[in-house]
Amino acid sequence: MLTGAILAGGPNDTFDGTLKSFLPFDGQVIITKQIHEMKKVCSEILVVTNQPRSFLSVVPRDIRIITDYHKQMGPLGGIHAALSLANRPTIWIVACGMPFIDSKVVKYMLKLRNESNCQAVLPVLAQDPVYYHSLYRKNIIPEIEEGLFANAGHPSFLLNHINWIQVNEVLFTKNELDPLCLSEITTI
What we know:
This protein has 188 residues and is α/β, with parallel strands linked by helices. It has six helices and twelve strands.
């Protein structure tokens, strides 16, 4: 099993003044939909946010709400917090504005990770890595800290510092996986 982590607290996590996590989608708010899908493959789920009180009345009590150790460091700070506090060695990281996350895709990515023993598995679409809906191992915390101390708040910093593999369009098609799971609310 995995730890799932929803990054839900940065300045880009609102849409028309509402936290993306709380936007209605298919009859429920996005975060409820995400938690339901994550529970299929995750024994633990974290919400990483700089607004923890906003989530208390929305998420079930078995979901841990955490904040960044390193404030104002962008998504890399959120990934660092999730990896640091996760109870499992592999963490499925998603962004709060991703209503179509798919546990079937993550099962395939975990299979690749186990076969290659890499530190991360990222989807790559049109030659661009997708940093969310990705798997990361806890053993990349030193590389993340290096990035944080260098003021590199974006996960792209990691790609030159860790052993990672990609799941590209060919693998999505070959394995009958739907790349819609990588869509964020700003791209729908």
